[in-house]
Amino acid sequence: MTSVSIFGPADEPITLDIAQPFAPARVSTTRRYLMCPPRYFTVEYAINPWMDPSQPTSTELAMEQWTALKDTYERLGHDVSVIEPQQGLPDMVFAANSGTVIDGRVLGSRFRAEQRAAEADHFRRWFLESGYKAVVMPTAVNEAEGDFTWTGQLLLAGTGFRTDPGAHSEAQEVLGVPVVSLQLVDPRFYHLDVALFMLDDQSERPLVAYYPEAFSPGSQRVLRRLFPDAVIANDDDAVCLGLNAVSDGRHVVMPVEATNLAEQVARRGFEPVLVDISELRKSGGGPKCCTMELRG
To answer: Per residue, what are the HEC states of the chain?
Structure first.
């Protein structure tokens, strides 16, 4: 059996046992994350299918859920840095969209939606003030880790709704890593990080989880070739943004509603850590959207 820890705003853990066949031992690695508190969170415009300004939102609840997510990372031994939010930028909480960091090199973001454009420069200044020397701002539209996923060996790069295809070659040139382009076709899954996430980026055989229907037929074939052992999510997993998850190689922080996906990753030897982030999902975000990884 494996234990699943559920943490919500009340910060009271609930343990759920999931039957698990033989699976390899998983090893966590300490990660460094950058997050931004949702102090000004609201839904006042619609730039993706999840956003509905007519529905009420609670900034207080968003702060509680974000704090529980940050506390979860720190409880698991990870280092979390925090950037100050800016009034008038309600989506700045989704830090993953503002930078891609590999081996200490930073490729900033260039947002497609004008409502989020100003976020990019706030993050650029944070990187410079934090001692990063190699910081490059893109010329092509690129929503950073929203559409860029590092496997430990290559960069998976999504396009179709937000990030321009030209940003993929720019990322390869700036970051100096091989890039594989993937075409997204379902507007609900407008970013790569709501359709796919890395479970293990430290092994010789990286392991991912993904939702095939979010991708074009050709991209599905690419994913099957690259990751023949992948965890395949179903529609229920996908529509609760269960794939907007964060793994440290052992613990997988994911939305509490993604029970089928949690069982699948547990069967592979990982430990799901389920968090309630339902308020931020009203803007189309989950744990990964709130979390930029600082590599190197």
So the answer is: CEEEEEECCCCCCEEEEECCCCCCCCCCCCCEEEECCCCCCCCCCCCCCCCCCCCCCCHHHHHHHHHHHHHHHHHCCCEEEECCCCCCCCCCCCHHHHEEEECCEEEECECCCHHHCCHHHHHHHHHHHCCCCCEECCCCCECHHHCEEECCCCEEEEECCCCCCHHHHHHHHHHCCCEEEEEECCHHHCCHHHCEEEEECCCCCCEEEECHHHECHHHHHHHHHHCCCCEECCHHHHHCCCCCCEECCCEEEEECCCHHHHHHHHHCCCEEEEECCCCHHHHCCCCCCCCEEECC
Which residue out of 191, 240, 251, 290 is catalytically annotated? 191
Q: Which residue in the list 168, 240, 251, 289 is annotated as catalytic?
A: 289
Query: Would you call 191 a catalytic residue per the annotation?
Result: yes
Q: Is 240 tagged catalytic?
A: no
Q: What is the pLDDT of residues 112-163, one digit of tens each?
A: 999 999 999 999 999 999 999 999 999 999 999 999 999 999 999 999 999 9
166-219 pLDDT per residue, tens: 999 999 999 999 999 999 999 999 999 999 999 999 998 999 999 999 999 999
pLDDT score of 12: 54
User: What domains are there in the chain, each with its CATH number?
Assistant: 2-293 (3.75.10.10)
| pTM attached to this predicted model | 0.93
